[in-house]
Amino acid sequence: MNILEIQGLNKYFGGLTAAAGVDLHVGEGEIVGLIGPNGAGKTTVFNLISGALSPDSGMVRFKGTQIAGLKPHEIARRGIARTFQSVKVFSRMSVLENVLLGRLFGREKQSAMTDSARGESEEILDFVGLAGLKETRAQDLILANQKRLEVARALATRPDLLLLDEVMAGLTPTEVASSMDLVKKIRETGVTVFMIEHVMKAIMSICDRIIVLHHGEKIAEGSPQEIVQNRTVIEVYLGE
User: Fold this and answer.
1) pLDDT tens track of the chain, all 240 residues?
2) How far is CA 149 from CA 57, 94, 126, 187, in A?
3) Strand order, beta sheet including 217-222
4) Which of 72, 77, 105 is nearest to 90 (CA)?
5) What does the chain look like in DSSP terms, one character per residue?
6) Count of Cβ atoms closer than 10 Å to residue 142 Cβ
7) At what angle do helices 173-188 and 143-156 cross, to 10 degrees?
8) How many other β-carbons are positioned within 10 Å of the β-carbon of residue 41?
9) Measured on CA atoms in the order 233, 238, 239, 240, is the torsion positive or negative?
10) Distance separating alpha carbons of residues 127 and 112, to the nearest angstrom
11) For residue 82, what are the β-bridge partners?
12) What's the angle, vertex CA 183, arms to CA 180 and CA 186, rounded to 5?
């Protein structure tokens, strides 16, 4: 079953084509990668899925229901959460408070100050490896932990589909390996993952399928093994 289906998705910014007739799907329980050169339209696609942008035309279906044009909070409450290419945490709030906000604005309305909400938030912090930093201000975390905090806040909304936008960018090899393990753990909990990533070791190791964009168009799709052997992908992105 496909949890996400996109058909004929188009988005233009003046004379710039950010998405041109994009067709793709993400199956329930998959980890799917979205790759391509800078400016290929990857984040635009995420923005169109999550409601930050509205498409000029095309369909975005989540669990069979059209969601294109809905507001971000409406889409979030249907079960889609995301992180951002540039880390966006509430810098002066504690790590725990950041996750409580995700819980408060998640799919089930509940006071963030109830014992259950706090307990669930602490469980999520333990899951992502931040339990020992729950009282730390978000701005005082290193980059790798800020990225984990974004993931934790997204998970607090109880998503069925998690969009990860370059969650491994700027990390050390050890931090990348740890992030790869976290993504696999997230999938094991039943959350489907759709991820943009430039760290090829990660994307090739953990993804079931990879979709390649170039100038807003999908130019390839397949298993990691198929993608690394695709001549077009090699020419425009991977190199020899």
Assistant:
1) 899 999 999 999 988 889 999 999 999 999 999 999 888 899 999 999 999 999 999 999 999 999 998 999 999 999 999 999 888 888 999 999 999 988 887 655 555 557 688 889 999 999 999 999 999 999 999 999 999 999 999 999 999 999 999 999 999 999 999 999 999 999 999 999 999 998 888 999 999 999 999 999 999 999 999 999 999 988 888 765
2) 34, 10, 11, 17
3) 80-82, 161-165, 192-196, 31-35, 209-214, 217-222
4) 105
5) -EEEEEEEEEEEETTEEEEEEEEEEEETT-EEEEE-STTSSHHHHHHHHHTSS--SEEEEEETTEE-TT--HHHHHHHTEEE--SS----TTSBHHHHHHHHHHTSSS---TTSHHHHHHHHHHHHHHT-GGGTTSBGGGS-HHHHHHHHHHHHHHT--SEEEEESTTTT--HHHHHHHHHHHHHHHHTT-EEEEE---HHHHHHH-SEEEEEETTEEEEEE-HHHHHT-HHHIIIII--
6) 11
7) 10
8) 26
9) negative
10) 19
11) 163
12) 150
Q: Which two tokens stand for residue 225?
A: 């093994």
- 28: its two tokens: 């329930």
How far is 85 from 72, CA to CA, in rounded Å?
17
pLDDT at 108: 58
Task: Kindly give the pairing relationship between strand 2-13 and strand 16-27.
Answer: antiparallel
Total residue length of the chain:
240
Unique residue bearing structure tokens 């899925």: 49
The overall longest dimension of the chain from CA atoms, in Å, is 55
Question: How far is 118 from 100, CA to CA, in rounded Å?
Answer: 7
